TrEMBL record:
<dbReference type="InterPro" id="IPR051682">
    <property type="entry name" value="Mito_Persulfide_Diox"/>
</dbReference>
<dbReference type="InterPro" id="IPR001279">
    <property type="entry name" value="Metallo-B-lactamas"/>
</dbReference>
<dbReference type="InterPro" id="IPR036866">
    <property type="entry name" value="RibonucZ/Hydroxyglut_hydro"/>
</dbReference>
<dbReference type="InterPro" id="IPR036873">
    <property type="entry name" value="Rhodanese-like_dom_sf"/>
</dbReference>
<feature type="domain" description="Rhodanese">
    <location>
        <begin position="367"/>
        <end position="453"/>
    </location>
</feature>
<dbReference type="Pfam" id="PF00581">
    <property type="entry name" value="Rhodanese"/>
</dbReference>
<dbReference type="InterPro" id="IPR044528">
    <property type="entry name" value="POD-like_MBL-fold"/>
</dbReference>
<dbReference type="InterPro" id="IPR001763">
    <property type="entry name" value="Rhodanese-like_dom"/>
</dbReference>
<protein>
    <submittedName>
        <fullName>MBL fold metallo-hydrolase</fullName>
    </submittedName>
</protein>
<dbReference type="Pfam" id="PF00753">
    <property type="entry name" value="Lactamase_B"/>
</dbReference>
<feature type="domain" description="Rhodanese">
    <location>
        <begin position="261"/>
        <end position="352"/>
    </location>
</feature>
<keyword id="KW-0479">Metal-binding</keyword>
Length: 456
């Protein structure tokens, strides 16, 4: 009997897989921190004999090279991928025996990248699982615009063909096990659901329902902004990532925190947004540790800028450090635990700013306060409807566009509160008076705020 164990990385919206039989297994698209895969294999009592990459990833740093080195596994990388390290090239149709009666078959599925390859696990000649990487996802496909703008339409057409090839070659009951698509920006559109099969995708996926021209047009129209750090992921993966070092960062006291802030380094407070708003070290930025930390911190921070992490506990620092290694932020410059009382020098006072709801914002407007509203959602979210008269700067652009915000107190909002908290901390550090709207956007209409919506 075969098995498939799924490792989920919610912060990046990705999954990795350990799959095999009684004695041996293959790992597909491993994360940078490989210790959990080794632990999963140990728990299963299997030896990792293959490590397979579906493509050179653009959204995270792989642990494949290191995992293969440590375990002695064969490292499978698509033959057309340009990499600088020794690996076993895999071409369309190649088969590899994983365990008795279990074979891994490579299927060329270009589209997300030109060299993208999916893998089908076959038990006694019958497909039982399809590891589709960034090809066929749940209700969508991987975005085709991460390699080269001039190739985007060509790759979108290839995605359509690749999806049809998978559907044509596999039975309806075969589980589709993608790497991307669980909140990842590598997905061409955000999919619903947690599990799928070839049959379900045949009935619901645009790539399998629409003709190629309609599919391409819709795909290109739906593409969102690309996180800035993606620029660095492909080259790191092609060069061969170094092993991670997850030992604790150097501790920083209040004086050192102040020195790092004065030097222009980033000091990131990982506490929840309520605690941060109530009191924090002036000049620090709030990226909640239990939010999309890696995605948004890596997106906003100038690449290579030293970062110091602040959190309530050492465990929170360790979790954040692990997540950040997945996007190439390998070693925090320093860290500190506790709270503002221990992070401030003697005589210093904590900074703070108010939080509010959309009802509070509506009341401020009714009282003639003339509240300036800043919407930090993405362009596509804004296009679906917004508070009339609000200023729009997506959170990932805010750091370089604060001079576009008119004078006065800024009421900043997103769709739910997390991105508004990031934006509020950036503005607070820049010396602006800010109110963080910590509320769901649906409440804006109920509060009586005027909304601009698309015409039918």
């Amino acid at each position: 009997m075969f098995f498939v164990d799924t490792l989920t990385f919610e912060g990046l919206g990705n999954r990795s897989y350990l799959s095999g039989g009684a004695r041996a297994a293959v790992v597909v698209d491993p994360p940078r921190d490989i210790d959990q895969l080794i632990a999963a294999a140990t728990k299963r009592g299997v030896r990792i004999v293959y490590v397979a990459e579906t493509h050179v990833h653009n959204d995270y740093v792989t642990g494949g090279l290191e995992l293969a080195r440590i375990t002695g596994a064969v490292y499978l990388v698509p033959s057309a991928a340009h990499v600088s390290f020794a690996r076993t090239p895999v071409a369309d149709g190649d088969t590899l025996e994983v365990d008795e009666g279990l074979v891994l078959r490579a299927i060329a599925t270009p589209g997300h990248t030109p060299h993208h390859t999916s893998y089908v696990l076959e038990e006694d000649g019958r497909g039982v699982a399809a590891f589709t990487g960034g090809s066929l996802l749940i209700g969508t496909v991987g975005r085709p615009d991460l390699v080269e703008p001039r190739l985007t339409e060509q790759l979108a057409r290839a995605q359509h063909a690749s999806a049809h090839r998978l559907a044509d070659e596999l039975d309806d009951t075969v589980p589709v096990l993608p790497t991307h698509g669980f909140g990842s920006f590598c997905s061409s559109s955000q999919a619903q659901g947690d599990a799928t099969t070839i049959g379900k995708e045949r009935r619901a996926n645009d790539a399998l329902i629409l003709d190629v021209d309609t599919f391409v047009a819709r795909t290109l129209a739906s593409l969102e902004e690309v996180p800035a750090y993606y620029t660095h992921m492909g080259p790191i993966n092609a060069a061969g990532p170094a092993p991670v070092d997850l030992t604790p960062p150097a501790p920083a006291d209040a004086g050192q925190i102040a020195e790092r802030l004065a030097a222009g380094e980033w000091v990131v407070d990982l506490r929840n947004r309520v605690a941060f708003a109530e009191g924090h070290v002036a000049g620090t930025f709030n990226f909640e540790g239990d939010g999309k930390l890696a995605t948004y911190l890596a997106w906003l921070i100038p690449w290579g800028k030293p970062v110091t992490l602040l959190a309530e506990t050492a465990a929170q620092i360790a979790d954040a450090q692990r997540e950040l290694t997945r996007v190439g932020i390998d070693r925090p410059a320093a860290s500190a635990t506790g709270g503002p009382a221990s992070w401030l020098r003697e005589g210093e006072r904590a900074a703070s700013f108010p939080r509010a709801t959309f009802a509070d914002l509506a009341e401020a407007r009714r009282c003639g306060a003339g509240a300036l509203v800043l919407d930090v959602r993405r362009d596509s979210e804004r296009a679906a409807g917004h508070i009339t008269g609000s200023v729009h700067i997506p959170v990932h652009e805010l750091r370089l566009r604060t001079d576009e915000i008119p004078d006065g107190t800024v009421w900043v909002h997103c769709a739910g509160g997390m991105r508004a908290a990031i934006a509020a901390s950036l503005l607070d550090a820049a010396g602006r008076q800010v109110v963080a709207v910590d509320d769901g956007l649906d409440a804006a209409g109920y509060a009586g705020l005027p909304l601009t919506t698309p015409r039918a």
